Amino acid sequence: MTAAVPRPDRRAAGLVLVGIASVQFGSALATHIFDEVGPAGTVLLRTIFAAAVLGAIWRPAARGLSRVTRRDIALYAVTLAGMNLCFYESLERLPLGIAVTLEFVGPLTVAIAGTRNRLDVLWVLLAAGGIVLLGPDIGDGLDGTGVALALTAGGFWGVYILMSARVGRGPTGLSGLSMAMLVASVLLLPIGIADGGGDLLGPRVLAIGLAVALLSSAIPYVLELEALRRLPERVFGVLLSLEPAVAAVVGLIVLDQHLVGREILAIALVVLASAGALSSPEAVEAPQS
Known about the structure:
The chain is mostly helical. It has one domain. It has helices at residues 7-30, 34-57, 67-91, 96-103, 105-114, 118-132, 144-168, 174-196, 203-228, 233-239, 243-255, 261-278.
């Protein structure tokens, strides 16, 4: 094995980074319809539109699937619904950069579970230290419920990473994502309708919902599934640690959300941990089949 990064891994890393930017711009856009349909209504629109777009590209085919594959897709759907709902509920209460930083507990857990050398543990602890720095602000500038929701979303995010790899490498491939998105839409219907009501059918709301679906679901999920075909779950989780920095920048530019010094330092530590972990030779190993 040479020290150079193989081209497939570079492409996979690029797919993840493009997906990160897409998700954050979509999240910022989603907040513009919270007043009309609430976070749950926004998540419902996002998921329905994403299911329609993905289903048109990769037609769901449930026939002939094994019980194990059906179970995986069902778990993937529950994970998608729970992750997005909890995150949007937190986004109504927290700045975008802070919400994503707290949500990173999921990818961080994946990184810890997959690490194989001491230096990687150091980078993981550094990222954890960044998240701990936000602790004193909880209840004093940071909404406690929003923090809990963001951490819960992080738990779902960790499962999402593992299930994305499992479904993406399974017999259904990208059509498994289409099926999971369709099931997630059904799961979100009751709470989404209760939150959004008739406003869900407003032309402006529908237009923004479609844009959010493309930016936050259809585009990044496809990119991430493709990336996970070439990257180990641990490396994928570390790459996603760039999310807080991108989210903070997008929050500042799009939503005019300014962060204080401690919050900026916390995000910087998470990004530094990512850069350190990616410098490890293990970060370029091919995924195990």
